[in-house]
Amino acid sequence: MSLIRRVSMMVFIAGLAGCGSDNDVSDLDAYMNEVRLRPPGKIEPTPIFRSYPTFTYSAANLRSPFSRQVRVDLAGQKHGSRKVKPDLGRVKQYLEGFNIEQFEMVGTLSNATGSFALLRGAGGVHRLKVGDYLGRNDGRIVAISGSQVDVIEIVPDGQGAWLERPRTIPLKEHS
Question: Could you tell me which InterPro entries the record lists for this protein (predicted)?
């Protein structure tokens, strides 16, 4: 017989020796009888948890208090034109629901149909072409280069007219 078989046989025989009927379990039977004779205990009801009203942060779309404030120079302020105005009948694109400051250019793509800018923001990376809109101020992409995206926004001038404001979204390297 092999050594493994001998060891297995010895372990099996030792296991059977422990299964004999001469084990004394009278102390266990006495404890179980004592537990059965106890009066049933009372279970406390579960505590009632109050629900609190949810809090909705409503200032997420406002200017960040950590960004530099724009100084308004009334003497050097450009006056808008009555010819320039946003197209109110145009269907808004998805990215027009977000502030333009949160977008950053991360790359470009080019193929037979044209050149595209890759902008990160609004929960993902978006592929945009010249003529697409983004930002809350009717920002329209007018040029895409390897280093930046040029956007023209239409903003009110504060006197009832509209003003075209150029913006540039530079390529963010190492992103």
Answer: PilP
User: 3-state class of 28 per DSSP?
Assistant: helix
Residue 102 CB partners (closer than 8 Å, separation 6+): 121, 122
Q: Read off the pLDDT of residues 134-155 as tens digits, 9 standing for 90 and up.
A: 988 889 999 999 899 999 998 8
4 lies in some domain: no
High-pLDDT (> 70) share of the chain, %: 86
CATH code, 106:
2.30.30.830
Helices (H), the chain: 3-17, 26-37
The answer to whether residue 61 sits within a structural domain is no
* CA angle centred on 103, ends 128 and 71, rounded to 5°: 125
Q: What is the mean pLDDT of residues 5-11?
A: 80
